[in-house]
Amino acid sequence: MPTEQWDPTAAGLAPTGHTDEVWRPSSQGSRPFTGPSIGRGGLGAGLVEVPRVPYRDPATAVLDDPVVAENKRFCSHCGSRVGRGDDGVPGLTEGVCPRCGTPFSFVPKLRPGEVLGGQYEVLGCLAYGGLGWIYLARDHNVNDRWVVLKGLIDTGDPAAMAAAVAERRFLAEVEHPNIVRIYNFVQHPDPVTGTMIGYIVMEYVGGNSLRELALARRRPDRRIEPMPLPQVLAYGLEILPALGYLHGIGLLYCDLKPDNVIQTDEQLKLLDLGAVRRMDDYESPLFFTAGYSAPELGRRGPSIASDLYTVGRMMAVLSFEFPEYRSTRKHSLPGPDEVPLFEIFESYHRFLLRATHDQPEQRFHSAEDMAEQLVGVLREVVALGGEQPPPRLSRMFSTERRPFGPRDELLAPEPHEVAVGLPVPQVDAGDPSAGFLATVTGVDPVAMIQSLDNAPTVTPEVLLRRARALIDLEDLSAATSALDDAAEDVPGDWRVSWYRGLVAIAQTKPKEAKVAFDAVYDILPGEPAAKLALAVSAELCGDHGAAARYYELVWRTDHGYVSAAFGLARTRLAQGHRSWAVEILDSVPDSSSQYLSAQIGALKVRIRDRRPAELTVADLVEAGNRLDRLVLDVQKRTKLAADVLGTAFDWVLAGKPGGDHGVSTVLGVELTERGLRFGLEECYRTLARLASSVTERVALVDRANAVRPRTVR
């Protein structure tokens, strides 16, 4: 993929960076982000296995006949096609661009056996890149190690070349496990002009570029099979820490593409640091590749946001068929109607939309933020593939404040119950009041508001915490007022949208809540909390299909969100899938505080609200066995026993539809009308003795008398 060049001075970008046209992200990265070391080599984040790429012996990588294909010959200055053949006559490998007059040469400048800098012996050509041929050499001063030589741009001016070499020496200080190591910079005369040309000396990384790995996946019809999505996400998670490291030391990579990333064994490395530049550099030529580069480069120049844009574009190109990425969709993505992958993995689609947004301000603010959301997306993809990812705490949200919906009866939760149960945003550590707020956690809403009245400074976090306390107190008008104030301080902040969604839920306006939570999902596509909020909003709107989709996504991804299990069971039951509802409730782990509620719910789902003709004796036996396994107090156990026996009684009176298959008892009671009457009578009399009021006791005694079998005197 040819790299293009852009002159920032010619584009009118002020060198000082103080014009209105120059955008700077809110955070340039005060510290390098190297990312966590997870799993073997980090590749796959411990969640997926990425196929290994064997180390390539450098001796086998040298080209026997280094020739640049004619369809890859372009002018280094204006990008015009050069060196092309005509009527069967091969094109020239050296000449002058007919459009701009710039000389071109596709002949290697270095020959095998030449020694650069008195220590680097050239062995041959490895590949042709945007700035010319790349060579393999041996470093005779350091144990004959393999190194790679790559030329800097040849300006034809010896003084300018010397300055360029000096300018690029800062790259030797770059040290990150996912970035190719720069050893040295040397100069060597051009074999024709004698002009000194600068070369970067880099470590040799034996493997395959992501472009080579992608091209190797050709189908029989010659079309390229996209890479598996988990593999692409794993690549993104490996690349982002490297970019974050560069950003943290004030550098921009500028030209990320599959050609510039190599995998060897289980490690990924960024190659080709020729386009790397300092963030405050407004004079050096900028190199980028069409189809991957951000749309604002020509107007605003490079930034952290434009670097992160290239990550999103590269992932898109690798993960689905995207032939128009350099033409009609050079700065856009196809929709779910064209890409089935987006239909299946909505979070991935939203991730790419934010990463490649046409407005830099709307993209991820840092490589660390982007990686955080990408981990969440990968966890969902793995979960949808049938594996349960390990638990993981969010950096953006708390856990569920309290589960909503887990009760013996699978009824939709009350709006206020949802509003005070959903997770809430974590406190921004950079807020001036973060320290103060840490001292007032865990207090009741009234005490919280009293403490906030004495806050030393009214900051956005103080306003958001006030809104949260007012929602808990159901003072929704005052909560809305606090959010309006916060919105003025931090316009467009997703946390304001989140709390507005909670207010809308509490006001029984689930459609408004859905809009607010959907906006949060766009910004934080890897967060389970956003999907949980959308799920319950859809459920309260009566859209059980959408609710079930989001509940299932959350529950499959993280069993810590137990509200999702109960919500999914409710929606599946509403859709008529009783057995699914039971299966979902059974998936609540026994370590959960809501395990008993889930088991009781599963028992009731199995037998309640069913006509006798829908029941089988197996349903009754399973319900009885389930009850026997539960550790319950006498009153709750007896109530459930009455439910099971009452259902069995109706089934027996209906003539035992489907037959009893030789089963004679349930819960130790005979499956006969007389036996079940005795069993129910005993349950009601036991409950009457445990009743908390006279009225309840009388009613239960009456039920016992009504159901007991008639006796002959």
TrEMBL record:
Residues 1-39 are annotated as: Disordered. Keywords: ATP-binding, Kinase, Nucleotide-binding, Serine/threonine-protein kinase, Transferase. It catalyses: L-seryl-[protein] + ATP = O-phospho-L-seryl-[protein] + ADP + H(+); L-threonyl-[protein] + ATP = O-phospho-L-threonyl-[protein] + ADP + H(+). PANTHER family: SERINE/THREONINE PROTEIN KINASE (PTHR24363), SERINE_THREONINE KINASE LIKE DOMAIN CONTAINING 1 (PTHR24363:SF0). The lineage of its organism: Bacteria, Bacillati, Actinomycetota, Actinomycetes, Pseudonocardiales. SUPFAM superfamilies: Protein kinase-like (PK-like) (SSF56112), TPR-like (SSF48452). Its EC number is 2.7.11.1. It is an enzyme of class 2 (transferase). One of its GO terms (molecular function) is ATP binding. This is non-specific serine/threonine protein kinase. Pfam families: Pkinase, PknG_rubred, PknG_TPR. InterPro entries: Kinase-like_dom_sf, PknG_rubred, PknG_TPR, Prot_kinase_dom, TPR-like_helical_dom_sf. It comes from the Bacteria. It comes from Kutzneria buriramensis. Transmembrane segments: none annotated. Gene3D superfamilies: Phosphorylase Kinase, domain 1, Tetratricopeptide repeat domain, Transferase(Phosphotransferase) domain 1.
